[in-house]
Design goal:
single chain; 448 residues; alpha/beta; Rossmann fold; 2 domains; two-stranded antiparallel sheet
Length: 448
């Protein structure tokens, strides 16, 4: 019986070739779009100011000078810290003080010589104290990153004293960074904080957003927009946009009507000062920051390095005239002062139980509330604000005692010469209001 050969279906290879050609066409279009974005848009913050790090999330590029806002520049020294070059080895008889913090400590918006770290370093030199100050401020750093950097990098500088300046937005940063945490599978110990990982696994979307300008745009403009629409509803979102209002400012006030979905900390960086009703949420998330602070404290104690926690205020806590434009964009009332100490008191009680020295700069800042200490739209401190910061530390008995400053009886914490901040503030009001409330020098990968 003759056999019949089964004929091949010519449609099958045509289908596969069509799929392949469509894939190539899409790939070419995406490459063209990516090229256009790279030519027409500024680089990512982390690519411009530093680099992504698989252990410490992000770092600064050593030996560079960067724009720092308001016609100022920031110099990154030979070791990747802001300020002048210095050697890893300490000189004999010198006390080395390490300041840890975020962009406030780093000094966003001011020149190198205007940061409170440099002001204090110069003060010590003038009065013949053998004390060297290192500015360990990095944009968007919080306790989890401070612990990792101290464990792996800062410890080689052999500091004698470490001061950590806890920012009220650190609560949200720790919340976000912990999702990027990587742990040893055997011991459970924290290895690092990799921005390409989410809940212990590599995220291809994170990689795409980090490496692609177009991906970053899609994430910012589409993904985040859909999240806000889900929270507010399409028509409410549209109404806010037509009125020129920020959707996030509306979201942070949704809890009052019980409409909030998910954790409010994802949207509100300011739960530590917004309203005493936020205390339970703060207490819930403070445990996370407290854990990393204790890891840092214990790591330093094992090496006989003293540790002090410092609380400092944002403009909304000091007076109604500080950060006046910016706070409205974050859902605050313009003429209201948000100085209820509900979160402050909780941290102080915690520090007392843990025998951690703590300095509270809020009262000192409030005593200078009639001066221009913060920029009008941007959240950071003016040069005068940095001066008050330095004066406040020198006036704090815990600071003077830890550095043995009281041994020279005739050296008082005299005020620094007032900086001419009026021009800076006025210029920022004129050109910066459109970006009100933005925290400059931030690393976009920290934001969900």
């Amino acid at each position: 019986m003759p056999t019949t050969r089964k004929k091949n279906n010519p449609a099958v290879p045509r289908i596969f070739s069509g799929i392949f050609l469509a894939f190539l066409a899409i790939l070419c279009v995406l490459m063209i779009i990516e090229g256009v974005f790279r030519l027409t848009r500024p680089p990512h913050g982390e690519l411009q100011m530093g680099f992504v790090d698989s252990i410490h999330h992000h770092k600064l590029k050593a030996g560079q000078v960067f724009p720092n806002g308001f016609d100022t520049t920031a110099r990154i020294n030979n070791l990747g810290y802001r300020g002048e070059d210095f050697n890893v080895e300490k000189l004999p008889g010198v006390k080395r003080v390490l300041f840890l913090g975020d962009s406030f400590t780093y000094g966003s918006g001011v020149n190198d010589g205007e940061t409170f770290s440099t002001l204090l370093g110069n003060y010590f030199k003038k009065h013949n104290f053998n004390i060297e100050v290192i500015n360990g401020g990095f944009a968007s750093y919080s306790p989890i990153l401070h612990y990792l950097r101290t464990r792996d990098d800062h410890i080689h500088l052999m500091p004698d004293h470490v001061f950590l300046f806890y920012d009220l937005t650190d609560l949200q940063d720790d919340f976000n960074y912990e999702k990027n945490a990587v742990y040893d599978k055997k011991t459970g110990n924290l290895i690092g904080c990799n921005p390409m990982y989410v809940n212990g696994r590599l995220s291809l979307w994170k990689v795409f957003v980090a490496k692609s300008y177009f991906g970053r745009y899609i994430h910012n403009k589409a993904v985040r927009t859909f999240e806000k629409i889900e929270m507010l509803g399409f028509w409410e979102y549209l109404r806010l946009k037509l009125q020129g209002k920020r959707a996030k400012a509306a979201i942070v006030n949704l809890e009052r009507s019980g409409n909030i979905k998910g954790d409010l900390l994802k949207y509100d960086r300011y739960i530590m000062i917004r309203d005493p009703s936020r205390l339970p949420l703060f207490v819930k998330h403070w445990q996370r920051s407290a854990h990393y602070l204790l890891l840092l404290r214990d790591f330093l104690a094992e090496r006989n390095i003293s540790f002090t926690l410092v609380l400092y205020p944002h403009g909304a806590q000091v007076s109604a005239d500080q950060w006046r434009t910016g706070k409205v964009m974050w859902g605050f009332e313009q003429d209201k002062v948000y100085d209820d100490p509900y979160a402050w008191n909780h941290i102080k009680e915690w520090a007392g139980r843990e025998n951690i020295d703590l300095i509270d700069l809020l009262p000192f800042f409030k005593s200078h509330g009639d001066e221009e200490l913060y920029f009008d739209a941007d959240v950071h401190m003016t040069p005068r604000g940095n001066q008050i910061f330095a004066e406040g530390l020198l006036a704090a008995e815990a600071f003077r005692k830890s550095l043995d400053l009281n041994r020279v009886a005739n050296v008082a914490p005299a005020p620094f010469v007032q900086a001419p901040v009026g021009r800076l503030v006025r210029r920022h009001r004129a050109v910066g209001a459109a970006k009100a409330g933005a925290q400059s020098s931030g690393f976009p990968l920290t934001r969900e």
